[in-house]
Amino acid sequence: MPAHTIIRDGSPYWWASTDIWVVPGTDPNGAPGTPVAGQPAYLWAHAANLGNTQANGTRIDFYWADPSAQVIVGNATAIGSAFADLAPEPDPNNPVGQDVLCLVPWVPVIVNGGHECLLAVAHVPGDTGPIPDPLPNGYVFDPPAHDQIAQRNITVLMAGMLQAAMVISVRALPRQDKEAFISVEYGGELDERQIALLGLRGLQLRPAPQRAVQVELSLQPLCGGKDRHPHGHEDAEAQGNEPGAAEDDMGAANGGAGPDADYGGKHGLRVRLPRGTATAVYAAFSADGLRPGQYQLVHIIERSQGKVAGGVSYVVVQLQGDKK
């Protein structure tokens, strides 16, 4: 078959791809890690060709966006492009692939503290699963539906620095009203590659054995987060059994988010938006139960029309030697 490029999704959460990573600083060949707001960083992607013909001149476009579960063209900012010649894989079931560097440095914005969503999109003429080139305005970056698109929406939060709420954007498409259910899932473990890409290697961290982090969701600023409020839409409304809270242990420890809209009425925020508008969801973290040397994965997940639209994952870390 013709060329077919792939940038792999994350597992079990597709928005935590390990085929995209950041190298903070001025040396693109340095160690992967967490970007620093206002400081330059370089982006890498890992791509492979699962077809049987050469994919010469494959272009990989890199984007950043404010933390959002679902990202669309027009709300993501292009960073730059990289090019690679991808040979067919001898064993498509175990692709070797190629690391590709975007030579345009990326400077994370200070307003979000460097917590951004990253995307990589591969284009090659004649791909067996073509996507528009260029991507039209309003096009949904939908990694599960396209092998050529991957998303990295996972970030590290230090337990001692949780004063400000995290801000997540929820957006309606330009021509369609939206009703979304936002919930929180806890648990899971980082594999060695994810640990390395997050800059956590050598810290001797272990997953917390039980729920150690609490998250409160709100459509109003929480814990000093008001200065980070993006322009939202006042018609959004929150509904749930316990307004302002969204917590659930389901999914994370057992293979990722499920499609159910609200788990049959469990806690969450229901957000309704007119077409073409957006609002902010504030997530206030508390890590009082996290012990030194532990981390906990937290996943804030958006569901719409009975399926998972996307999510944002956080690794809350309590370093060795930190006081409780």
Notable traits:
324 residues, mainly beta, Immunoglobulin-like, 2 domains, 6-stranded mixed beta sheet, 1 helix, 2% helix
Summarize the structure.
With 324 residues, the chain is mostly beta strands. It has one helix at 192-197; strands spanning 5-6, 20-24, 41-49, 55-65, 71-72, 76-86, 98-106, 117-123, 140-141, 149-152, 154-158, 166-171, 178-186, 206-207, 214-218, 269-273, 278-286, 294-304, 307-318.
Descriptive notes:
It is a single chain. Helices cover 2% and strands 39% of the residues. The protein has 2 domains: 5-152, Immunoglobulin-like; 157-318, Immunoglobulin-like (Sandwich), CATH 2.60.40. The model is unreliable at 224-236, 238-255 and 259-265 (pLDDT under 50). With 324 residues, the protein is an all-beta fold.
